Amino acid sequence: MRLKTAITELFRIEHPIVLAPMGGIAGGALAGAVGRAGGLGLIGGGYANHALGHGGEDWIDQQFRLAGNAKVGIGFITWALADRRAALERALTRSPSAVMLSFGDAAPFVEAIKRAGARLILQIQSVSEARRAAALGADVIVAQGTEAGGHGASRATFTLVPAVVDAVAPLPVLAAGGIADGRGLAAALMLGAAGVLVGTRFYAAAEALGHASAKARIAAASGDDTLRTTVFDQVRGLAWPKPFTGRAIVNDFTQRWHGREQELDRALTAEMPRYREAAAAGKVDTSVVFAGECVDLIRDVAPAAEIVARIVAEAAERLGTAPLAAE
Q1: Which end of the chain is more exposed for a tag (fewer CB within 10 A), N or C?
Q2: Is 201 inside any structural domain?
Q3: Mean of the per-residue pLDDT values of the chain
């Protein structure tokens, strides 16, 4: 069964489902599995930083090899690329289907991406940013709501998506934030999106990078257990610009430091090594598990292909006789 949209036509894929390029989570194995299942996989280049264990040039080569012959692209955090442009240049040598940029000024990178023949996906969090992304030459715009896991801003998905669709038509828009099943895909299509960008549901995929403890935490959590915070960026030494915060599952670390950010700054000498040790060991009572409000809808860790099939089947059932080309 297929749901044909502008996204499936643009990328010549079966299903309007795109893997969010989660840094340190969306490696080549996961991106390749989503691609082979009929979606579009995006490798998470993140901060393009060797020191973080992912996103450097050698890591990028390795992940594209792991993806095999599947249709995949790559995503980066835009503000971090300014000092690490070599990572983007290395990725472009791998002929990615798309490059997604999020959180920052994409203008310095547009020409190189276009010249390499990759589709440009720009993620935004407001209507004004969407208009700028369209003016920069985006092929696809991701409208990300605050329900999303990881970094984002303040607009909600349900209202942001149709506003962005209207503002940038006829450019295709992907809805992101709080989407983990076929109901979310169906709702996004009804709001005018041409598909969805899915993160947290694929974090709890068998092929995802990251500790089994983090995946189990996602499968057990409720959306009520998440919050937007900056404390994990502080303890990791990441200078995220305003207004972005990260949605994560609450744990002992947030209970101790969220709302006490100035005190955390003074305690970083002791807290940073303790945090690094916990993260390396997969101790999720201390280390971050970025996850969206959609965790209520996730109750297992499953192969990526099975996740794609579930989302598509449920969306097709929910859409019923809606005016979409379903076959």
Answers
A1: C
A2: yes
A3: 95
